Amino acid sequence: MRHTIHNSLRTLLLLFFSLPLYSSTPLPPKIQRAEPLSWWTEMNCPLTLMLQGQNLADAEVTIKPTEGLTVTGQHNAESPNYLFVDLDVQKEGTYTITVKKGNKKHSFKYTINSRREGSRDRLSFTSADVIYLIMSDRFVDGDETNNTLPQCAEAANKDNIHGRWGGDIQGIINSFDHIRESGATAIWPTPLLCDNEAAWSYHGYACSDYYHIDPRYGTNDLYKQMVAKAHEKGVKVLMDMVPNHCGGTHWWMNDLPYHDWIHQFDSYTSTNNVFSANYDINASQYDRDLNNSGWFDRMMPDMNLSNPDLLQYFKQWAIWWIEFANLDGLRVDTYPYVDKLPAAEWCQAIRAEYPNINIVGECWTRPASNVAYWQADARNADGFNSNLPSVMDFPTEEAIRQALENDGNGWGNGMMRVYDAVSQDYLYADVNKLLLFVGNHDMDRFADIVKDNDLRRVKLGITMIATMRGIPQVFAGDEYAVRSSDMKMGHSGLRRPLPDYETLTAEQKDLYAYHCRMFKFRKSEPIIWNGKTMHFASRDNTYAYFRYTDEGAVFVYINASEKEREVPVSHYNEILGEYNPQGVNVMTGESIDLCPFTARQKPIKVAPLSALVVKLEK
To answer: What's the pTM value of the predicted model, to 2 decimals?
Structure first.
């Protein structure tokens, strides 16, 4: 996530050493929050309840009934208003937990549920899926009654390009048919948790409450219903999580459990964004520490996952949402900013609970060697294992965008950039778990950056992410070639609502039809999900590659030049000989002869700025 947040000084002084004043007369113990909100039987992750309220230090904790949920330990924080309680879970039920100090006590109800059948073995998103990225506030407004609420600092204002516009969970639910029609099989909404900043809160990446959906989006129960309805439609749901930082308005910022709950400095100190310090053998400890502990933004305090209570809090937080909402996977924001060892432990705990779960991390760096370091089971010289199964493929994203933003002339330009990016696949532990994309909510719209805003070039991008290795991700609106409303306004200008189909131009509708056909083909083609890649270099701004298995192959020829090109079939003898050369043009259904040995074969020509995709059988 990269964006510029309004620089407000209204709470900055409260973010440092912000402990309240206490009366000399002890207050009665009082519990305002108990997190996680509930738990389940048969979980691997141990349960440590974080109690927050007033005068909780050294309180005696008892539970009724006395069987089924028992206290195994407890410890204080630095603030007297927190207490961490270790619990042993034996059976489901509603329990009364009481904290007592002297003759004063306070009680609350806590629920242990029976774990959903098959929960541990849930499947996740894979290379068979297509992920649809939704900028939650800017997608579809399905319920106008929740746009402006008295408990929220920022009201909806669609005239403010940096403000909230009213997109919500109901809008996502209402759009499932469109999402499926576009070929997507999973959604990744940007954070839906509370973000109560007074301005710029629409992006959602400054969390003010980790256990509650922002009421302008809906409720926890509506979020749970959204996931259930998605599953009914055959759509998986990823949750966007941000363990690196919270928001400046998070409730604990007025009374931190520990001084080191967040990284603190004498004055505001930003991260240096030097991810390489994590694996650079020449890096200084100073640079390494600053990358991991500097703040992402003035209103985004940097969380210290080296604090064991915070790390346990975040483990439970991720597991709670997966179990509560029945999620299919996670996307993790700003992953390399977090101290890598506790971050790896966080991923490991989630995967211990759900062995098949996929977690994709935003590792916005280049070249491929720098990204590959962060994928689970990478062959790292320092032996580090992130336990992060999937990483976002920024090197290939950059190569495709650069290849199509100009005419591709010049040595190493055009499609050779894509060839060179894919040639680095040997660095990755698992290329089929790379998240492949050409645009997202943090970069200029793809239709903005291609040369002349030519939708033929957009189609080439669609073709590549639909047929290359990895897990495709499409940013909502790119299926229509939506462009930024105002490129001078940065991210706010590109995060546009999904337009109504009837408002599209004929050219946009044609592109959408192409998009749907291409991704529906991918959905039906296991060769693309799991196959290997063989590609061929060319200096004429074309790119040819085969996705192949023992059962068949898919041949892709990208002509990014502004001239008609003849497919040099004879160049591909080494692989074409393994398959029946009588293939099918995926987009037209027509038969096509790729036999390189037939002199009578008519030349295969591909029009300027277009692609040929052919399915071959064994």
So the answer is: 0.94
